[in-house]
Structure formats: structure tokens, C-alpha cells
Amino acid sequence: MGQLFRVFPSCEFFECPSGNECELIGLRMNGNYCSVNKTLMLQQSEDSVCENNFECNSDVCISDKCVSSNLLEKIFSWFKKFFG
After folding, report:
1. Long-range CB contacts (< 8 A, 24+ apart) of 46-52?
2. pTM of the entire predicted model
3. With 0-12 CB in 10 A as exposed, 13-18 as middle and 19+ as buried, what is 41?
4. In the sheet where 28-29 sits, what is the strand order?
5. Residue 54 included in any domain
6. Domain assignment of residue 25, yes or no
């Protein structure tokens, strides 16, 4: 998993969390997300281990890995051509 994000850079549009705690699991802001443990974590890059889509920069977690959204588009395109 990602590193704990201890500084919350901008609270203009959302209620600021206290310390590194957050309330809304899956909330994403400024490259971070609120984990299932209700702590702010850095979003993961491609090929990183994940459990949920919101943990990934691409917002795509497949088979416990963050994948590029471009890869997902290629897969959909292939299925579209195949089943046309």
C-alpha cells in the first residue's frame, strides 16, 4: 500500500480531516484517497498492489494491480471488434 499522507494541501472544496484521518472511504483529492482504515494514503501508480479502484491513479484495479486506463480501453476495443 501507499505511504501515509500527513499534510492535506487543500481543503477548499471538502471538509478538512484532522491529522491524517478521514471519514469518507474512497474519497479522492489531490492524488490521495481515504482508505478503508480511514487514513489518507497516496494513490498508487501502474503495477502497484491494490484492492479498490480508488487506490489507483488510473482508477482501475484489476487482479489486485493498478493498471493503466489505456490498457482497459484497449481491452474494450478488442472485445468490441471481436464481438462487433
Report:
1. 48/2, 49/1, 52/26
2. 0.64
3. buried
4. 28-29, 32-34, 40-42
5. yes
6. no
CB 1 within 8 A of CB 20: no
Residue count of the chain: 84
Average pLDDT per 10 consecutive residues for the chain, totaling 84 residues? 41 53 85 89 95 93 90 75 75
CA distances from 25 to 29, 36, 53, 73, 83 (A): 12, 6, 12, 26, 37
Which cell numbers hold the place of 13?
A: 472544496
Number of domains present in the structure of the chain: 1
Report CA Rg, the chain.
15
- E strand or H helix that includes residue 72: helix 69-83
57: containing domain: 44-83
